[in-house]
Amino acid sequence: MDPLLIEVPEEIHTERFILRSPRKGDGPKLNTAICDSIEELKVWMPWAQKAPTLDESESYCRRMVSSWALRQDLPMFIFERMNTGEEGEVLGATGLHRINWEVRSFEIGYWRRTGRGGRGVITESIRGLAGMAFTALQARRVEVRMDENNRSSRRVAERAGFTFEGLLRCDSLTTSGDVRHTRVYSRVRGIEEPA
């Protein structure tokens, strides 16, 4: 099937959060969250080596609208869900990346806004996202990768029910240019996920 014809939910509601695909006009909200978090993000995220301008954040959102429409990348922002059911502030982002539509495999990426830790924001969000991938997108495999030294990210994957598969030695570089090892976790249909 042509991926352009696959219906992908643009919103996921978990118990406490709303995950939503980017929209035109989301730039200021995203910019605030990134700028609040830049010091923590720059350690792990190559794209976060300097705070973006408002225009750069809006441009990113508009590019992601296109990537979503083409089913090349499926990013989602994580919003606090207000008592009214509406979106609150941006708490971070996640998404399905490195998509292989033939195999139906996806990689989940994520980051959390500084000062919003200890509440299970990312764990709950990636459980919801993985659930959508297995149900709506008929995923066979969903994986999470992280720097071997990123213990917080490792704990998130484990709490969300992903299984450690192995260590890719010297497979990429850190944001400072040093060689790093990457831990790979996954959920696979018929093993961690019901067939």
The run of helices and strands is EEHHEEEHEHEE
The level 1 CATH classification is Alpha Beta
Radius of gyration: 16 Å
Low-confidence sequence ranges: none
Please tally the β strands and state the result.
Answer: 8
Q: How are the strands of the largest sheet arranged?
A: 1-2-3-4-5-6-8-7
What's the CATH architecture? 3-Layer(aba) Sandwich
Class derived from helix and strand content: alpha+beta
Number of domains: 1
Distance between the termini: 21 Å
Which whole number gives the mean pLDDT? 97
In terms of DSSP E residues, the strand content is 25-35%
The global form is globular
Helix segment tally: 4
Query: Major sheet, described briefly?
Result: 8 strands, mixed
CATH topology group = Aminopeptidase
What does this structure look like?
With 195 residues, this protein is of the alpha+beta class. It has a single domain (3-188), classed as Aminopeptidase (3-Layer(aba) Sandwich), CATH 3.40.630.30. The protein has four helices and eight strands; from the N terminus they run ββααβββαβαββ. Strands 1-2-3-4-5-6-8-7 form an eight-stranded mixed sheet, with helices on both faces. Helix 1 (27-44) packs across helix 2 (54-69). Residues 16-163 form the N-acetyltransferase domain. One of its GO terms (molecular function) is protein N-terminal-serine acetyltransferase activity.
Keywords:
transferase; 30% helix; GNAT_dom; 195 residues; globular; alpha+beta; eight-stranded mixed beta sheet; protein N-terminal-serine acetyltransferase activity; Aminopeptidase; 8 strands; single chain
